[in-house]
Design goal:
The protein is mainly beta and 324 residues long. It has four helices and 14 strands. The protein is 11% helix and 33% strand. The protein is globular. The chain starts with 11 loop residues before the first strand and ends with a helix.
């Protein structure tokens, strides 16, 4: 049978399901918030409506009203975490009912304090920016306790050797050298910032306002391959067969639905530390932060007119073949 003309295939559009620009502190009521405990209180915090211009951070790429308000997540920032393997803070949506195919997207900025400069590994800055789907939104989403799919990217190289980019499938952490999930392959650097695959993440300098605040730590520039000190767009696409994670349109991991068990239909954002140690100084507490903005969830649907055209096209080809 002859191949169908490309013009007959359904065009794909998106229908908005949920969005949040995080402009209001009152928006916290729309989320369940989970924080690892410290000795005398919460170890971390989630601040909705945070004005990130205080850190010299420019307007996020998908902001349409020129505001510099977003969601700030800081982990192990107020005091050391206790009783867990790592420190973390996560926020999860409430009451969403998502279709079988959808896309989650958000702008994210990773900020950290350097040692003598903002090198590959920051001082007390070894935290990752994480996004998840399929959670029941009843528990902290972190390394040892996610209940769906969770992906994490470190803004410095604090994740450790070949662990700057991570995927967690129902609280397990597949090895990037033996799993088939990573677009960079299965080499010894497939999840490391040093791998050439991540060169689309170019070297960055800290905002001038941060250099003024702490020239001793915020000078210099990051190596290529880390996400720090720039806005990036993180996306998770659930197409009903696979879950694909992208950064700035570059595929990082693809995990089949068959490898996952989803406890619910909620979406989470998180900051996850590699340990339990908190920041002891005010400047560390200020500069070690992840900023999220412009969260959107859209359903992926075929255009109705295109579906009709596809049906007519198939019928026409079938009739033409019969006449022949």
């Amino acid at each position: 049978m002859a191949a169908l003309p490309a013009a007959l295939f359904p065009a794909i559009s998106s229908a908005a399901i949920y969005s949040d620009d995080f402009n209001s502190a009152a928006g916290a009521a729309n989320y369940n918030i989970f924080i690892t405990a410290g000795a005398t209180g919460p170890s971390s915090d989630a601040t909705f409506g945070y004005d990130y211009s205080a850190l010299g951070i420019p307007v996020a790429p998908h902001t349409t009203d020129s505001t510099t308000l977003g969601l700030r997540l800081r982990t192990d920032n107020l005091q050391n975490s206790v009783g867990t393997v790592v420190g973390a803070v996560s926020v999860a949506t409430k009451g969403l009912s998502l279709p079988s195919q959808y896309v989650v997207s958000a702008d994210v900025w990773g900020n950290y304090i350097g040692g003598t400069s903002i090198a590959a590994s920051g001082a007390n800055g070894s935290t990752g920016m994480a996004m998840g789907i399929g959670t029941a939104a009843t528990s902290l989403q972190y390394i040892a306790g996610n209940d769906g799919l969770l992906v994490e990217a470190f803004h410095d190289n604090g994740g450790g050797a070949n662990q700057a980019y991570r995927v967690y499938t129902d609280a397990t952490h597949p090895n990037p050298t033996t799993s088939s999930y990573f677009a960079a392959g299965t080499s010894a650097t497939s999840a490391s910032y040093t791998d050439p695959y991540y060169s689309f993440l170019t070297s960055q300098t800290a905002p001038a306002a941060q250099v003024t605040l702490s020239s001793a730590t915020q000078g210099g520039s990051t190596p290529a391959g880390v996400m720090g000190f720039a806005w990036h767009t993180m996306t998770i696409t659930q197409d009903g067969v696979n879950v694909t994670w992208e950064i700035d349109g570059h595929t990082i991991t693809t995990v089949p639905d068959s490898a996952l068990t989803f406890a619910g239909g909620q979406v989470s954002l998180a900051a996850i530390d590699t340990g339990l140690s908190g920041n002891s100084t005010a400047i560390n507490q200020l500069l070690n932060a992840d900023i999220w903005d412009n969260l959107t969830i859209t359903a992926v649907v075929p255009e109705p007119t295109s579906i009709s055209l596809l049906g007519l096209g198939i019928a026409g080809l079938f009739l033409a073949r019969r006449r022949k």
